[in-house]
Design a protein that fits this description.
Structural class of chain A: mainly alpha
CATH class of chain B: Alpha Beta
Number of helices of chain B: 9
Low-confidence stretches of chain A: none
Radius of gyration of chain A: 20 Å
Largest sheet of chain A: none
CATH topology of chain B: Rossmann fold
Number of domains of chain B: 1
Number of domains of chain A: 1
Strand content of chain B: 15-25%
Distance between the termini of chain A: 40 Å
Number of helices of chain A: 11
CATH architecture of chain B: 3-Layer(aba) Sandwich
Largest interface: A-B, 40 and 48 residues
Largest sheet of chain B: 6 strands, mixed
Number of strands of chain B: 10
Oligomer: heterodimer
Helix content of chain B: 25-40%
Helix content of chain A: over 70%
C-alpha cells in the first residue's frame, strides 16, 4: 500500500476558499453577527469624535491636530478587530463542535490560518467601511484621505493582530475554551503601551523601551506625525514591518508547537473547558 | 485471526502506546485491517477505543509504537492520506446555522471533490436528503442530522471510514436505515471500515471482525461468530459482558 501523489500535499487555495465560504455563509445567515461588526466601531468613533470636538474647542494644539483621536480610534479598531475577527471565527468552530471535522479533514493548519486572516479582513471591512463613511459625515474626518499611508498602517496593524490571534488560536487548541477570555481581552494588555491616543514621549523613560518593542506603537506615532506635522515617517513603518516579521515568525512557531502539544495531549477533539 | 501484513493493510497499528500524563489509555496494541473489511473496536468506557481511533485519524500522537494509514505514518504524514479517509461521530457536529447543502459544499471542497454539486446530488439521492437539503442543519431531527453527518463522511468516497458510535441516540428504525446504507457503501466502494460501538447487534450485523479492548489492551480478536462460539454464549453482548467483567469463562476462552 503506498501513499498517493503529492498534489494533495501542496497548499490549496480551494480549501482556504472553502473555509472563507463557510464563514461567509455564517455571516449571511445571522444579522446579529453582522450588526455586532458595526455596532462597537460606530459607538467608539462617535464617542471619540465628540470628545475631539470638545478638546479642540478648548485647546489651540488640538485644534491644529484635528482628527488625531478619530484616526487613533479607527486604527485601534483595525488592530483590535483584526485580532477579534480571526479569534471569533476560530471560536465559532469550537462553539459549533466542528473542530474535529476540520482537524480530520485535509485542511492544513497553514490553510486554516490563512483563511481566518482573509475572514478577519472581510469582517473588519463590514464594520469599518460604513463607520469610516460615518466619520466623514459627522466630523468631516476622512480616513481614506490619509492616502498611501493608510494601506501601510493597515498592513502593519493587521500583521500584529494576526500574530496575536494565531497564538490565541494555538492556546485554544491546546487548552480548550478555558483560554477563551484571552481571545476577547488580550489586545487590551498592549493598549496602554502602544500609545494609541498619546505620544510615546508621555511614558516614563523605562516604559518607552517596552513601547518601542511593539509594532503598533510605530503606526500610531506615524499617524500623529502625518496628521499633526504632515510628514509620512517611512522609517517608523519599516521598523514596524521588521518587528512584525519577527512577531509573526514567533507566532507561527508558537502555534505549531501548541498544535503539536495538543496532539500529544489529545485535546484536539475535546475543545471543552 | 488471519491479518494482512502491515505493509499491505489500509490501517496498521503496531505496538501502540498512548499515555496521558500518568494514565495509560492504550497499552501496546497491534492490529492490521484487511482491505474492504469492517472491523469493530469494542470495549467499555475507558478501554481505549476513542484514543485508538483518534490516533488513526492523526488527531493524537502516539507515545510509542506506529500507526500507518494507506502507507502513511500518522500523524506525521497525515496530509498524504486524509483526503482518502473520513469519519463520523455523534460527538462532533457540523455548523448548525449552515444549510445542509452549504455544509456539504464546504466539506466537499475541503476534501477536494472535483464536482461538489454533482456529489451532493448523488448523496442526496442515496441518503434521502432532498427534502431538507436547504434547511439549516441545526433545525433537523436527530435522525436527519445523522444522515447529514453520514453524507459528510461519504462526501469524498473514502477508502477508509472511521465510525464512532454511528447510530447512538437513534431510534431503531433510523439506526437500521443507517446500517443498511453503511453496508451498501462498503460493498459498492470496497471501503475498509473501523467502527467503535456499544451496540452489539449492530456489530454482529456489520462487522466481520471484532477487536475487544479492555484497559488499553486487546483482550480478544476474532469474527463475531467464532467469539460467540468460543465463549459458549448466544450473542456478542454476552461475550462483551464476560470480557468486561473478566469472568472465568472469558479467561478460559481467551486462553
Amino acid at each position: 500500500m503506498s501513499v498517493q501523489a503529492p498534489a494533495h500535499v501542496a497548499l490549496s487555495a480551494r480549501r482556504m476558499f472553502a473555509m472563507v465560504l463557510r464563514h461567509w455563509y455564517l455571516l449571511k445567515s445571522s444579522w446579529p453577527r453582522v450588526f455586532d461588526l458595526m455596532y462597537w466601531p460606530a459607538v467608539q468613533m462617535l464617542m471619540w469624535g465628540f470628545l475631539q470636538i470638545y478638546v479642540a474647542q478648548n485647546s489651540g494644539f488640538f485644534a491644529r491636530a484635528a482628527g488625531t483621536f478619530i484616526a487613533a480610534v479607527m486604527l485601534w479598531d483595525i488592530l483590535f478587530r483584526g485580532q477579534l475577527g480571526f479569534s471569533i471565527s476560530f471560536l465559532e468552530e469550537m462553539y459549533a463542535r466542528n473542530m474535529g471535522n476540520l482537524m480530520m479533514s485535509p485542511l492544513r493548519p497553514v490553510e486554516f490560518v490563512a483563511a481566518l486572516m482573509i475572514i478577519s479582513v472581510i469582517r473588519l471591512s463590514i464594520g469599518m467601511v460604513p463607520v469610516s463613511l460615518l466619520a466623514i459625515w459627522f466630523f468631516g474626518f476622512n480616513l481614506w484621505g490619509l492616502g498611501l499611508a493608510l494601506p501601510v498602517f493597515f498592513l502593519n496593524l493587521f500583521l500584529t493582530s494576526w500574530a496575536v490571534a494565531i497564538v490565541v488560536a494555538g492556546l485554544l487548541l491546546r487548552n480548550g475554551l478555558g483560554a477563551e477570555s484571552l481571545a476577547w481581552g488580550i489586545m487590551f494588555m498592549v493598549l496602554p503601551l502602544t500609545c494609541v491616543y498619546y505620544p510615546v514621549a508621555v511614558l516614563p523613560d523605562w516604559l518607552q523601551a517596552f513601547a518601542w518593542m511593539l509594532p503598533p506603537t510605530y503606526v500610531f506615532e506615524g499617524m500623529r506625525a502625518l496628521i499633526i506635522d504632515r510628514v509620512f515617517r517611512a522609517d517608523l513603518m519599516l521598523q514596524s514591518f521588521a518587528l512584525n516579521a519577527v512577531l509573526m515568525a514567533a507566532a507561527v512557531a508558537g502555534f505549531l508547537t501548541l498544535l503539536k502539544s495538543a496532539r500529544r495531549e489529545g485535546t484536539l477533539l475535546q475543545g471543552g473547558d | 485471526m488471519l491479518a494482512p501484513s502491515s505493509a499491505e493493510a489500509p490501517v496498521a497499528v503496531e505496538r501502540l502506546v498512548k499515555v496521558y500524563k500518568t494514565v495509560t489509555a492504550v497499552d501496546g496494541i497491534s492490529f492490521a485491517l484487511t482491505p474492504g473489511s469492517c472491523t469493530a473496536l469494542l470495549g467499555g468506557n475507558g478501554a481505549g477505543k476513542t484514543t485508538t481511533i483518534s490516533t488513526i485519524m492523526g488527531l493524537v500522537e502516539p507515545t510509542s509504537g506506529r500507526v500507518t494509514v494507506l502507507g502513511a505514518a500518522m500523524p506525521r504524514q497525515r496530509h498524504l492520506v486524509l483526503h482518502r479517509m473520513n469519519f463520523e461521530s455523534p460527538y462532533v457536529n457540523m455548523p448548525m446555522r449552515l444549510s445542509v447543502r452549504q455544509n456539504l459544499t464546504v466539506f466537499g471542497m475541503l476534501y477536494g471533490c472535483p464536482d461538489v454539486a454533482g456529489r451532493i446530488r448523488a448523496l442526496s439521492q442515496q441518503l434521502d436528503l432532498d427534502e431538507f437539503l436547504d434547511r439549516q442543519t441545526g433545525k433537523l431531527s436527530a435522525g436527519q442530522k445523522t444522515r447529514v453527518a453520514l453524507a459528510k463522511s461519504l462526501v469524498n468516497e473514502p477508502e477508509i471510514l472511521l465510525l464512532d458510535e454511528p447510530t447512538a441516540s437513534l431510534d431503531p428504525d433510523t439506526a437500521d436505515w443507517v446500517r443498511g446504507r453503511l453496508e451498501r457503501y462498503r460493498q459498492e466502494r470496497g471501503a475498509t471500515v473501523l467502527l467503535a460501538s456499544h451496540n452489539m447487534s449492530e456489530v454482529e450485523r456489520l462487522c466481520d471482525r471484532v477487536i475487544m479492548l479492555k484497559a488499553g489492551r486487546i483482550e480478544d480478536d476474532d469474527t463475531p461468530a467464532r467469539l460467540i462460539d468460543r465463549y459458549g454464549r448466544s450473542n456478542l453482548e454476552e461475550v462483551f459482558l464476560d470480557i468486561a467483567r473478566g469472568t472465568g469463562e472469558a479467561r478460559e476462552a481467551a486462553q
